[in-house]
Prior knowledge:
The complex is a heterodimer.
Chain A: E1 4-7, E2 10-14, E3 19-25, E4 32-38, E5 45-51, E6 56-59, E7 62-67, E8 72-77, E9 86-93, E10 100-102, E11 106-111
Parallel strand pairs in A: 2-11
Antiparallel strand pairs in A: 1-3, 3-8, 4-5, 4-9, 6-7, 7-8, 9-10, 9-11
Chain B: E1 4-7, E2 10-13, E3 19-25, E4 31-38, E5 42-51, E6 54-57, E7 64-70, E8 73-78, E9 87-94, E10 103-104, E11 108-112
Parallel strand pairs in B: 2-11
Antiparallel strand pairs in B: 1-3, 3-8, 4-5, 4-9, 5-6, 7-8, 9-10, 9-11
Amino acid sequence: KNQVEQSPxxxxxxxxxxxxxxxxxxxxxxxxxxWYKQDTGRGPVSLTIMTFSENTxxxxxxxxTLDADTKQSSLHIxxxxxxxxxxYICVVNMNRDDKIIFGKGTRLHILP
Amino acid sequence: xxxxxxxxRHKVTETGTPVTLRCHQTENHRYMYWYxxxxxxxxxxxxxxxxxxxxxxxxxxxxYSVSRSKTEDFLLTLESATSSQTSxxxxxxxxAGAGNEQFFGPGTRLTVL
Lengths: 112, 113
C-alpha cells in the first residue's frame, strides 16, 4: 500500500534550538518528494522538492535530505524562530497516474 | 496566496442543504484541485480538473460534484450537506500535473449542523 508516514505527530522546542522532522514512505514508483509548510489558518506552501538523485537541499534555515534506498526523508530546521511554528507536510509524487500521496503532517510549536 | 481566492471563507449550514464553494485563480494554471483537511487525516483529494470541462474524481469524492466552465473558476458542490462534510476545504492550482508544485488557496471552513 502506498503510504507516507511522518514523525513525530507534534513537537515542542524552544526558540533557537534545532529540530528534525521525519518522513518515511512506501510509495512506488517514486518521482519526487516535496515538503510543505502550513501556517495556522492558511494553505500549505512549498519549502523544497527532492528528486530521486538528490540527497540534500537547503532553503535558508531549512535543509531537506532524501535517502531513496531506505525511502526516508528528513527536514532539519536550524536555529528555530517563532515563525517556524506550523505544520510540515511531506508529499510524495508517484510518477504514475499523476498521483501524489500526502503525509498527515508534523505540528511544530516553537516556544519563546 | 499565489493569485488564488476561495469564497466563502467561512460557512455554517444545515444538514440537507446544498452548498457551493468557489475557487478563483488569476494564474491561468491548467490544473485545479479540491482537498479537504481534517484532524488525523491530513489533506485528501476530492476532485481535480486538468482543463475546462475536464474533471476527475479523487479518493473522497462521494457526496461532492465539481464543475469548471472557465479556466479561472473551479466550483465544488455538496448536493445535500451532511455533518461528516464539516471540514476545511482547500483549493490548489498547478501549471502541470500533481507532481509539480501546487499553490494553495486560503481555505474555506465549512460547518454542517
